[in-house]
From TrEMBL:
This is Sulfotransferase. It comes from the Bacteria. Gene3D superfamilies: P-loop containing nucleotide triphosphate hydrolases (3.40.50.300), Tetratricopeptide repeat domain (1.25.40.10). It comes from Acetobacter malorum DSM 14337. Keywords: Transferase. The lineage of its organism: Bacteria, Pseudomonadati, Pseudomonadota, Alphaproteobacteria, Acetobacterales.
Length: 529
């Protein structure tokens, strides 16, 4: 039984932490440890303090000590969070499993801990597993709008659209100006003239002052206006939202062009690098510009009974980053490309497979990885994973420009900074096209290029060619990809739950005048339109 004064110190320390008073929390926790060197609660508080200060690794050590003395739901949840920050997904999953074990024994947890667990599962792509925790968080703290938002998004990811709709509406009823809720609700389904949120979105945008809120609302309003046939006004809202957001970014297209240059210039070193003990696994990489059909092809492939989707993994970029030994802020930059060029590619391949396993819903099966940005690494993938299959999606260049411009990607990711300017997207496409032609020359017959339009117009024959390239037998389920119940966490979530439709073809012609700057850039680069 812990003495009352120690219990009092721990209670005060927790209260100080909740108030953001890290020094007081640390002082009180250290006082507890002076009397009880095995106090799991004190080590937990010190670990969270270190994480709050940005000292992730020391925070991890303290949290591991806490859980080692006495596993708790909150200790395991925070440990999972810190492992995710360190890109140690397998360890994060193990911590989550220990948190579940604590819950099963009846140990207490609060709403923020359940939300933390839900967020950790989401980061691992395990959206079905996150649902119960997000729902528990909303029950424990019904006034917390962030918890309600996370729950609604998780419901949308697993295809429970009507429930997600109700959850978003309940959130908006509590917080009428919550831009994330409006944006999430708008993306659930295609709007109609009879059923849409345009008047409410207009009013909410008119009140909004926060730049991120205006960005989210601008995208939502643009989407719904286009879907009810007001293409001209839709594009104007989209243009204004993107223009305002780009002004806040310290970005120029030259930054990405330097990365493309570095990949091409360093390729001779990668082509000659050792490949020792390469994995025998046969993952399928689905690559290309975003919004060109990568999710569609992933659903087709993962509908095959011998395949499972691992989602959009950062595993290969992180494996390359780890091999480079470079500690720069970005996963992909010029220095990382140069420093990884002479490393053992077999080691990178093994690291990738180890990282990918944490994201697989079923172990021992072949899997697909649909992170579009892996097109940057196609040559490295081909060498590091000799049995991997690579499929590159292509779409009409102008539709590619438009689809990138009108879909809001993760604003915290630097991969997509090019997507807020029509001219930047066009120049990015030029370099993408050039790099793919480069890869076809350097790693011939390793990449199957698939035209999105051809899938729509000739679904069965293109599906057969995809399966043949992947070494998969024919299966009728691949034609019914829209019946695949797996979670989808990309902007394509609503589309891939419908059978193939043709209304996305040549959509750029609705905005031909507005897209003229992109057309000039593409034509000057010799790209056929």
């Amino acid at each position: 039984m812990m003495p009352n004064f120690l219990l009092s110190n721990l209670k005060q320390a927790r209260s100080a932490l909740e108030q953001g008073n890290v020094p007081k929390t640390q002082s009180l926790a250290m006082a507890v440890l002076a009397q009880d060197a095995r106090s799991a609660a004190a080590y937990f508080l010190l670990g969270v303090c270190e994480m709050t200060r940005g000292n992730i690794r020391s925070g991890k050590d303290l949290l591991e000590t806490s859980v080692g003395f006495e596993p708790s739901v909150e200790g395991c949840a925070q440990l999972a969070r810190v492992f995710l920050l360190l890109r140690r997904d397998a360890d994060a999953l193990a911590a989550l499993q220990e948190a579940e074990a604590c819950l099963n024994t009846g140990k207490e947890s609060d709403a923020i801990t359940r939300d933390t667990i839900g967020c950790a599962y989401s980061r691992l792509g395990m959206h079905a597993a996150s649902l119960a925790h997000f729902e528990a968080a909303t029950r424990g703290a019904p006034s917390n709008t962030a918890f309600f938002y996370n729950w609604a998004v998780a419901l949308s990811f697993v295809g429970r659209i009507d429930e997600a709709d109700k959850a978003f509406e309940a959130l908006i009823a509590r917080a009428p100006d919550n831009a994330r809720a409006h944006h999430g609700l708008s993306g659930l389904r295609r709007q109609t003239a009879e059923r849409n949120h345009v008047p409410r979105l207009r009013a909410t945008l008119a009140r909004a002052e926060d730049p991120e809120a205006r960005l989210l609302l601008g995208y939502a309003l643009s989407k719904e206006l286009e879907e009810i046939g007001q293409a001209k006004e839709s594009f104007q809202f989209l243009f204004d939202a993107n223009k305002a957001h780009k002004k806040q970014l310290a970005y120029s297209i030259e930054q990405d062009e330097k990365i493309f240059d570095a990949i091409e210039q360093n390729w001779p070193l990668y082509a000659q690098a050792p490949v020792n003990n390469a994995p025998v696994e046969e993952p399928v990489f689905i690559i290309g510009m975003p919004r060109t059909g990568t999710t569609l092809v992933d659903r087709i492939i993962s509908s095959h009974p011998d395949m499972v989707s691992a989602g959009e993994l950062q595993a290969f970029p992180i494996a390359v980053k780890a091999a480079s030994g470079v500690r720069t802020r970005l996963v992909l930059d010029v220095e990382t490309i140069a420093k990884a060029a002479d490393k053992n590619l077999g080691m990178i391949g093994r690291d990738y497979i180890a990282r990918a396993r944490s994201h697989l819903p079923a172990q021992g099966m072949r899997f697909s990885d649909k992170f579009p940005g892996n097109f940057m690494y196609a040559g490295l993938i081909a060498r590091a994973l000799p049995s991997a299959r690579i499929i590159c999606l292509r779409r009409h260049p102008m539709d590619t420009v438009l689809s990138n411009f009108k879909n809001l990607f993760a604003t915290t990711s630097r991969y997509y900074d090019y997507s807020y300017s029509i001219e930047d997207i066009a120049r990015y496409y030029v370099r993408f096209d050039r790099l793919m032609r480069f890869w076809q020359q350097e790693i011939p017959e390793r990449i199957l290029e698939v035209q999105y339009e051809n899938i729509v117009l000739d679904q069965e024959n293109i599906t057969r060619s995809i399966l043949e390239h992947c070494g998969l037998s024919w299966n009728d389920a691949c034609l019914s990809f829209h019946k695949n119940n797996a979670a989808v966490s990309t902007p394509s979530a609503a589309q891939v739950r419908r059978p193939l439709y043709r209304d996305a073809l040549e959509r750029w012609k609705q905005h031909e005048e507005d897209l003229m700057p992109a057309r000039h850039i593409l034509e000057q680069a010799g790209i056929t339109l």
